[in-house]
Design goal:
Number of domains: 2
Number of helices: 10
Helix content: 25-40%
CATH class of the largest domain: Alpha Beta
Radius of gyration: 21 Å
Shape: globular
Number of strands: 22
Distance between the termini: 31 Å
CATH topology of the largest domain: FAD/NAD(P)-binding domain
CATH superfamily of the largest domain: FAD/NAD(P)-binding domain
Structural class: alpha+beta
CATH architecture of the largest domain: 3-Layer(bba) Sandwich
Low-confidence stretches: none
Bound molecules: flavin-adenine dinucleotide
Strand content: 25-35%
Length: 397
């Protein structure tokens, strides 16, 4: 006898756990399976930054995912889950005149509702005293930018899903899917499961999962690497990034011809530096940046960490005094065309995907999950999902 479920979700990251929560809230019988633990991969090792940056005048899919998710983090926090959620605001450092002009153009093209402001270093230091006086300034996002603990948040979605009746089966690897009998017969390392609908929330492993269904899903793993200081007393208040990488990525020549976009390295050569970081509730200052599309290589590279730490120290000079206490890496699901995949998989009414959330899947995951859950429950996609339709890029093998 197979175990059964109305909807089987493969992957207990933020995408899978949040989808389970919003689906279970509609009354669906949901089973989540993961070969590891809840938040055992990208959803547990990310920086924890969330929120949007420059909202467009006519809202885009990305606006809906990033700004919409902020409200969902807030709801989870208000429901009593300790997820360390804080609307901290964010600072995007500016180093050169060229970056300053680029940031001016970004702000000019954005909706004023986003509240982004261009400040001099002196002005930035009034709200973030450790910000370097040597830099030209920063774009400050006082609204809709925040942070939360990645493990606590993903586990909170899993717990909230269980409270609504979802089941969770961990240390259980999906190996194959048989679609011949009408339902999905899914083979796993802990026995078969028969499900009426299947959701792939398999993150960087989505191409492998696509092969179970005979589909080519163009999502590649991109390694992110991070480092942390030992816990320190409160020294910084915002999340941080730098204008250097968005400026570099605004130039098409800095992308590989066959994607994915927005990497720091192409064919082993550095295109630019990239920076994101914050001080977490434990007091650690955590930063990361480099993005390599070199397969499932977990090694942390000394050069990547040194380059990133040098860039972080340009923004926050006090970091010079604090050695690195730990380092880690994880795999982000980067779609080759840069857009997420949320919706029906082609060739089936009952197979779905929520993936390709790339470098901002923690912050965009909850709304991606809610939109997919609404589609599965109602049968009708929200119009904003047109840009995320998997049919644009998923093909038969
Ligand atoms: C270093 C780093 C920093 C980041 N910083 C940020 C940030 O600040 N803000 C932000 O928004 N995003 C950030 N991201 C990106 C974000 O973490 C990801 O986009 C997001 O977590 C992806 O979630 P997911 O649920 O799609 O994938 P994952 O969390 O990777 O979950 C996929 C799950 O599928 C399971 N799985 C795969 N194959 C199988 C199988 N065959 N059987 C059973 N289970 C399977 C895996 O075990 C895994 O648990 C960062 C990522 C990294 C690596």
């Amino acid at each position: 006898m197979s175990e059964t479920a109305d909807v089987l979700i493969v992957g207990a990251g933020i995408a899978g756990c949040a989808t389970a929560y919003y689906l279970a809230a509609t009354g669906a019988d949901v089973l989540i399976v993961d070969r590891g633990d809840v938040a055992g991969e990208a959803s547990g090792v990310n920086m924890g930054g969330l929120g949007g940056r420059f909202p467009s005048e006519s809202p885009t899919l990305d606006d809906a995912l990033s700004f919409g998710s902020v409200g969902l983090f807030d709801e989870l926090h208000d429901a009593g889950h300790d997820i360390e959620f804080r609307l901290s605001g964010s600072i995007q450092a500016i180093r050169t005149e060229d970056e300053f002009a680029f940031a001016e153009r970004q702000i000019a093209n954005a909706s004023p509702n986003g509240g982004a402001q261009l400040l001099t270093a002196r002005e930035v230091r009034t709200i973030e005293p450790q910000f370097s006086a040597e830099l030209l300034g920063a774009v400050v996002f006082p609204k809709f930018r925040g942070e939360a603990d990645p493990v606590k948040t993903t586990k909170a979605f899993a717990r909230a899903a269980e409270a609504k009746g979802s089941r969770l089966s961990l240390s259980r690897t999906v190996t194959t899917v048989d679609t011949s009998g009408g339902a999905y017969r899914v083979e796993t390392t802990a026995g078969p499961i028969e499900a009426k609908a299947l959701v792939l929330a398999t993150g960087a492993w989505s191409a492998e999962a696509g092969r179970w269904l005979g589909l080519d899903i163009p999502i590649v793993p991109v390694r992110g690497q991070m480092w942390a200081t030992a816990p320190l007393p409160p020294r910084t208040f915002h999340t941080f990034s730098a204008t250097e990488s968005p400026r570099a990525w605004s130039d098409r020549s800095n992308h590989a011809a066959d994607g994915p976009p927005n990497l720091t390295h192409i064919d082993g050569q550095r295109v630019c530096r990239h920076l994101y970081g914050r001080q977490n509730a434990a007091g650690e200052i955590i930063f990361g940046g480099d993005r390599h599309a070199i397969g499932f290589e977990r090694r942390v590279e000394a050069e990547s960490i040194a380059t990133n730490k040098a860039q972080a120290t340009e923004v926050l000079p006090f970091l010079r005094e604090h050695p690195t206490a730990r380092e880690w890496s994880g795999f982000m699901p980067f779609p080759r065309d840069g857009k997420p995949l949320i919706g029906h998989l082609p060739g089936s009414d009952n197979a779905f995907i929520v993936s390709g959330l790339a470098s901002s899947g923690f912050g965009r995951g909850p709304m991606a999950a809610k939109l997919l859950a609404n589609l599965i429950a109602s049968g009708t996609p929200d119009p904003v999902l047109v840009a995320a339709d998997p049919a644009r890029c998923v093909t038969n093998i």
